[in-house]
Amino acid sequence: ELPETTVASSPVACSADRVVVEAINPTDKLPSLVVCTLEGVCMPPENRPFLKPWPEAHERKIAYASSAKGVVAVQELKTKIKWALYASESVDGGKLYNLERRFGGGEGNAQDGYQLGALMNLGTRELLLISARVKGTTRRSWYLLASDDAGLSWVPP
To answer: What is the C-alpha to C-alpha distance for residues 93 and 90, in angstroms, rounded to an integer?
Structure first.
């Protein structure tokens, strides 16, 4: 059974032995990622993968995957004038998340910044698809990054 506070509009990440869902922490009312076994036992993490969301009105997109060691998550935040991409991961089955890392961000037209496409697990490798606008055009270029260490580092495959 999933947590009562599961965010209905969020994706579900699955693996052979567990699922990951986004749920609202009842104490601080902020979103977190919860790992549940296929038997229905859910384990709230000790901390959140991402810090508090921006205080100003913004759009948020999140993608996460169940990795061989835990959970990998990427979050995109943007307003009309700024944008940022953050990554976080747990290498202990979703108990404790590493501090979020900003790996892209800027001010100006947010449509010109990186945008989150998809995040997926392929056994011992995670793949992250992001896009960026080509300057002076309306075209976007797509970039694929891979991680073989449960999201600790990302490189072109």
So the answer is: 6
Instruction: Tell me which CATH code domain 48-147 carries.
Output: 2.40.128
Contacts of 156 (CB under 8 A, 6+ apart): 143, 144, 145, 146
CB 105 within 8 A of CB 113: yes
Tokens encoding 157 = 């495959």
Residue 111 DSSP SS3: helix
Nearest to 129 by CA among 140, 145, 114: 145
For residues 23 and 4, give the distance between their C-alpha atoms in angstroms, rounded to a whole number. Answer: 8
What are the pLDDT tens digits along the chain (157 aa)?
788 899 988 889 999 899 999 999 888 899 999 999 999 899 999 999 999 889 999 999 999 999 999 999 999 999 999 999 999 999 999 999 999 999 889 888 877 888 999 999 999 999 999 998 877 788 889 999 999 999 999 999 8
- Residue 150 main-chain phi, psi, to 5 deg: 60, 35
Predicted TM-score (pTM) of the model is 0.91
Domain boundaries, the chain: 48-147
